[in-house]
Design goal:
The structure holds two protein chains of two kinds. Chain A is mainly β. Chain A is 0% helix and 58% strand. In chain A, the strands form two sheets. In chain A, strands 2, 4, 5, 9, 10 and 11 form a six-stranded mixed β-sheet that branches. In chain A, 36% of the residues are buried. By secondary structure, chain B is mainly β. Chain B starts with a strand and ends with a strand. The chains are: A mainly beta, B mainly beta. The interface between A and B is medium-sized, with 22 and 25 residues.
Chain lengths: 114, 113
């Protein structure tokens, strides 16, 4: 069964600090991996999307890395801001029999405190 | 370019009733997917429509159904509502399909009493 596991489940950091969120997946063969940010009660917003040939992608203070060999991805947030407080969701899509299907992680809830 | 819109934004129903939610995708996007999100839970995939055809379906009972119109707008219907159906229902539109970059709407918050 395809799985996407995110860690930690929740994280509290001080404003201005950096943090890294993890995503491990078993989806194979792999098509792409996406990170989304979801504010409470709102729809997710895309941060990055990476295919198997990409190992890093940046979007402002957000940098995602991908190791397709170990099936791991991370999302690094630099110089955190209060507005970074949200849930971060990792989504992995497959090929072949899994084509057209996406597997969602349960998300990491990040709280940035002043 | 206008984003994904969902109506209504909030809805209160009682057990046994039925409800219809609407989603208008980004212009030019032919794929619309629906997700259920309950407190503390991840997004659960309901189904995807592409060019008026259901392309994929999640593990939800038959009470959950959907359709897509020729203008790509989509509706989701839930019949015989149960308390456990209370959730945030999100739709996402995509140019290429649910396995690619998706743009989510703000969601419809359904409360079943």
């Amino acid at each position: 069964k395809n799985q996407v596991e995110q860690s930690p489940q929740s994280l509290i950091i001080l404003e201005g600090k950096n943090c890294t969120l993890q995503c491990n997946y078993t989806v194979s063969p792999f098509s792409n991996l996406r990170w989304y940010k979801q504010d409470t009660g709102r729809g997710p917003v895309s941060l990055t999307i990476m295919t198997f040939s990409e190992n890093t992608k940046s979007n402002g203070r957000y940098t995602a890395t991908l190791d397709a060999d170990t099936k791991q991805s991370s999302l690094h947030i630099t110089a955190s801001q209060l507005s970074d407080s949200a849930s971060y969701i990792c989504v992995v899509s497959g090929l072949d029999t899994n084509a057209g299907k996406s597997t969602f992680g349960d998300g990491t809830t990040l709280t940035v405190k002043p | 370019k206008a984003g994904v819109t969902q109506t209504p934004r909030y809805l209160i129903k009682t057990r046994g009733q039925q409800v219809t939610l609407s989603c208008s995708p980004i212009s030019g996007h032919r794929s619309v997917s629906w997700y259920q999100q309950t407190p503390g839970q991840g997004l659960q995939f309901l189904f995807e429509y592409f060019s008026e055809t259901q392309r994929n379906k999640g593990n939800f009972p038959g009470r959950f159904s959907g359709r897509q119109f020729s203008n790509s707008r989509s509706e989701m219907n839930v019949s015989t509502l149960e308390l456990g159906d209370s959730a945030l229902y999100l739709c996402a539109s995509s140019l290429a399909g649910a396995a690619f970059e998706q743009f989510f709407g703000p969601g419809t918050r359904l409360t079943v009493l």
